Amino acid sequence: MGFFAELNKRLSHNIYKHGHYLTYPHADDPQRVEETIELLMPLVRPDAHAIVKSQIVGLINAYKHEDLLFDVHA
User: Fold this and answer.
1) What is the mean pLDDT of residues 33-46?
2) Residue 23: is it exposed, middle or buried by C-beta count within 10 angstroms (0-12/13-18/19+)?
3) What is the CA radius of gyration of the chain?
4) pLDDT interval class at 71 (50, 70, 90)
5) pTM score, whole prediction
6) From 3's CA, which of 45, 60, 67, 71 has a CA 20 to 30 Å away?
């Protein structure tokens, strides 16, 4: 398995394992969302942090529950 395939596998596993609460109504704290995204950053090259953060925020916004009280912004 190549490096990027392994990285993708690890990122996906972490999001599925730890990120599920980000789409639940009780995940209404933008700071908590940012902290959770930061936990994933050690898996990402430093030069790619901004784009990966942006993509994660985009996924959260696309799939979050509509009754959340805030919008997640990058």
Assistant:
1) 89
2) middle
3) 13
4) low
5) 0.52
6) 60
